[in-house]
Specification:
The structure is a single chain. The chain is mainly β. It folds into 4 domains: about 150 residues, Muramoyl-pentapeptide Carboxypeptidase, domain 1; about 100 residues, Immunoglobulin-like (Sandwich), CATH 2.60.40; about 40 residues, no CATH class; about 45 residues, no CATH class. About 15% of the residues lie in helices and about 35% in strands. Strands 4-10-9-6-7 form a 5-stranded mixed sheet, with no helix packed on it.
Length: about 475
């Protein structure tokens, strides 16, 4: 048995000098007019060999087998010497009178070359120049030219990242993730996203059946949770032989989709009751915890709290002072009116105002929410019904101090003659394409002041 085994490897794998092999001289090459792809083979090929370690010679062998046995090129040429390739090598060896061991050694390479020598000369290829790659590089097969002959390969830098990765791996739902995979070429792969939505094919950029840049696909995780996305090989039926084991996930990455938190916006510690754009909150002691109504809010709705009621003032806090609150005394229905507010605070605190327009519609008062301002502010309004309205203004400082003032406006149903021909002083907002400013001037009548939507300042001409 040892002699037979040694003789077997001598015949199949290594050239044996001086050995007399009678059956090697009487082999069948098939029909002389059959044209095959002629591979350039120089190394030992057996099950488990890959293009990356043989400089593309596995694909060379597989291309010959595709032509010889009319196989599907997309399925057969994978660059990996597996069970399917081994079975066709054994078939070729039996047909050519060689021991059917499924290993491509010196005798099998010589037999393939002999078959090619008797076929169409146009299919005979010249072996490309061998490329030696550095330690941090990997060989990339050069593909084939128009005649089907192998072209020279090249070396490329090994990827510094994993062959399968995702960016970003963590985010807020709905979370969009881009998956990258340096796999493809002849084989097919898919990403199972792990969220029950199924899988999607992915393939690298492989102009010569070898990946040069990763393929990428996007996926949106709509629900919060932690998911395991896996890369899987998609096998075709022809690739599998009886007894083959279908591999599970080749690689995986963990994706986390978090719930976006609605920020808790805290008011001034001296505020007793406030509204944040969605809920009304209150507390019993300054600076203590608080309770709010339970309305469902989104982040876009929640705003800086508008304080509606403050705790009692401290001994050192002085309330703000309203120095001016002026506006029109007569308007038409749906005519815009503008009021001017001037206030100051002795401690220099930020001021805010709230306007009550004196309108009551279906039992609710029409008012303007609190708005921060400094020293001077303008506010406009139009009344939908005729009548006499008391416009109330309340000024707040951050310590909870407040001051109030009011003005009466009469709203008619139509424009009437001016009640007075006396001059009045008014102020209006003037803007250009680059800047805005307040312009104070004297109007001949109150009607001309209203016509320009100016703010009433005082009776008589404006002082210089």
């Amino acid at each position: 048995m040892k002699h037979v085994s040694s003789l077997f490897y001598c015949i199949l794998i290594f050239p044996c000098f001086g050995a007399s092999i009678s059956y090697a001289q009487s082999v069948s090459v098939g029909n002389a007019d059959t044209s095959y792809y002629c591979p350039q083979l120089s190394v030992l090929l057996q099950r488990g060999a890959r293009d990356s370690t043989t400089q593309g010679q596995v694909s060379e062998l597989q291309s010959f087998l595709v032509d010889r046995y009319s196989l599907d090129e997309q399925t057969m040429i994978t660059g990996y010497f597996g069970r399917t390739t081994q079975s066709y090598v054994q078939q070729f060896q039996r047909e050519e009178g060689l021991p059917a061991a499924g290993i491509v050694g010196a005798m099998t390479r010589a037999r393939i070359a002999a078959v090619c020598a008797q076929t169409d000369a146009r299919k005979v290829c010249v072996a490309p120049q061998q490329v030696q790659c550095k330690g941090d590089e990997e060989y990339v097969a050069g593909g084939r030219d128009a005649a089907g002959c192998a072209m020279a390969g090249w070396c490329k830098q090994k990827s510094i990242t994993s062959d399968f990765y995702a960016k970003p791996e963590e985010g807020y739902a709905p979370h969009t993730v881009t998956f990258y995979a340096m796999v493809g070429g002849k084989a097919q792969y898919a990403v199972d996203f792990g969220d029950g939505t199924g899988q999607q094919p992915i393939a690298c950029i492989a102009p010569a059946d070898a990946c040069v840049s990763p393929g990428k696909i996007d996926h949106v995780y709509t629900k919060t949770g932690t998911y395991t996305a896996t890369l899987r090989r998609i096998y075709r039926i022809m690739e599998l032989q009886p007894g083959d084991r279908i591999l599970g996930p080749l690689a995986s990455v963990t994706i986390t989709a978090k719930e976006k938190e609605v920020p808790v916006v805290k008011p001034d510690v001296r505020c007793k009751v406030w509204f944040d754009g969605c809920n009304t909150c209150s507390r019993t002691v300054a600076g203590s915890g608080f309770t709010c109504t339970q309305m469902a809010c989104t982040q876009s709705v929640v705003a800086q709290p508008a304080c509606r009621e403050y705790f009692a003032l401290g001994k050192t806090d002085a309330p703000p002072t309203i120095t001016a609150f002026s506006g029109p005394t007569q308007l038409d229905v749906n005519q815009d009116g503008m009021w001017r507010i001037e206030a100051r605070d002795a401690e220099g605190q930020q001021l805010s105002y709230r306007v009550d327009w004196g309108e009551y519609i279906q039992g609710q008062s029409a008012s303007t929410a609190s708005t921060n301002f400094s020293q001077t502010a303008f506010v406009s309004h139009r009344f939908a019904q005729a009548g006499s309205y008391t416009v109330g203004i309340t000024i707040y400082d951050t310590a909870g101090g407040s001051a109030t003032s009011s003005a009466i406006v009469t709203v008619g149903t139509a424009t009437a003659a001016c009640p007075s021909q006396a001059r009045v002083c008014g102020e209006r907002r003037v803007c250009t394409s680059q800047e805005c400013w307040n312009e104070r001037r004297t109007y001949e009548t109150i009607c001309s002041l209203r016509a320009e939507s100016a703010v009433f300042i005082a009776e008589g001409a404006c002082s210089q």
